[in-house]
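Note to self: user wants both folds in one dump. Writing first protein now.
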Amino acid sequence: MAQRDVKQRIDSVKNIAKITRAMQMVAAARLRRAEQRIAAMRPYAGALRRMTRHAAEAASSGELANNPILVEHEQESTVALLLVTGDRGLAGAFNSQIIRAALRAAAEYTAEGKKVEYYAAGRRGVSSLVFRKLDPAGTYVGFSDRPAFADARRISGELSSAYVDGSVDKVEVFYNGYISPLTQEVRREVLLPLQRATIDEALAEPDEGPEDPLPGTRALVEYEPSPEGILARLVPDYVDISIYRALLESTASEHGARMTAMRTASENANEVIDDLTLEMNRVRQAEITQEIMEVVAGAESLT
């Protein structure tokens, strides 16, 4: 390879390294904002969980059984799988591991004779399903970088309606849980039916919040119109916040995965540049040696 060709390759790799470093810094900045949104969401989610538990504790068991979101269908013939992915790639295995996990679950349900319907949030999930000729029943794109609560409510509304209408008998969500910028884990959770245990779990545990100043104490609450009516309003919000949390964690995981992938790409580019520089020096040395040999041979031919 000529010295000029090696130099052109070095320049090309340097340009790629500049792009990957820039993408790494952008992902790091977006990751910090995503972490802040998760931290801001937690107090609201905690308060909603406490209110829902208190209302469930005060409501009668018969009324809880009449709530369509809390009632399990007698037959589980159709299962809906919600895949939470990103709108873009260049994030390592972030998108592919969600798709693989959902397809494995779908294969298990199909082997049991159950029908599977797909719902996908994020262009990567939608395109992967369409490529496999698994047309999703619901698609939600364009907000993976910064999901809003309205996006979660739209997804929740469609899935809840499908469950209440009997179109699906179970809803599961697959998303990347955020642990750290370097670590994300695939989470598989049952979204509907909303289990009674999910609502009133840890009733014996003391609540944490400004309304409970003393550990283990509970305030006497009067409900208007009734605990059952309040619970009927809170349960859909509980589903909304569950999807919103999945969207936020997926966003943070995506930025963390992209930041890690771009840092690795930058390091690999630097290694390639070092190897190409060494090769260019060898080519240059060979060209100089060849020129010296030609000069010596020409001088010897004149003597």
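First done. Writing the second protein, which came from a different request thread.
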Amino acid sequence: MRREGDSRNGVRSSAIAGTWYPGTAESLAAMVDGFLAGVPEQSVPGRLVGLVAPHAGYVYSGQVAAYGYRLLQGQHHPRVVVLSPCHVPYPGRFLVTGMRFYGTPLGTVEVDQAAVDRLAEQLPITRLRADEEHSLEIQLPFLQRTLGEFLLVPVMLRDQTWEDCQELAEALDGVLGGERPLLVASSDLCHAYSYRQVQETDAATLAALQRGDAHGFWQTAWRLQGACGYGAVATVLLLGRRWGGEQVVLLHSTNSGEVTGQRSGYVVGYGAAAIVGPAA
């Protein structure tokens, strides 16, 4: 286990407040609540095991993410595992903040250091004193507005190899399998300078996601470059299956071309999905 500035009482300050999402509590709460209010009433057939949500700036993907987080309203999840890619080239396979809290304009979210310590007994965890990664943090305001207080188990996957997915799923199952907390995978879909390519690639990637086979999804997303967080999603599919998640329900999908009306130039796909199991 590598420790890089482990600070058990510190706050990992937001790296994206005021840019990727609003920088004040009032404006951020209003934006998130507006997205949630814009989701039609819906339910999933069974118990919610996990979510897949995008991680672009809220003006682009926030409404898509809300289709997943809307399902959490009225639910109680005292612990949430959020898995994401790491776009910044920090060294290490599995990266976790070394701080005790994540900070957003809505307040702080406590990191479950006991769970991280237990994971570090099985995995080469690198703890970071500071990081600029957006893909994990951007999920937190939605969780704060829907769940209130909860303990966070945050893991960023740097390489996202299939072996990493298997090892992380095994370790999380060993540490948290008795409780089976909510799982969240953070991933955008295809990135390309072609609206049509994004549409076609997203369709294939989402079809693989809906089949629910973790390795099949990993292979498809890796081959097509169809999801930047393919390792995070594959890990949640692996673990979700162990925890009773038998079905993947696609909740909503779109792309930045549809959101902005700018279909030329760089386009990014977004999707939200729920992993569900039989009702308890």
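Dump finished. Worth passing along: The first strand starts at residue 2 and ends at 4.
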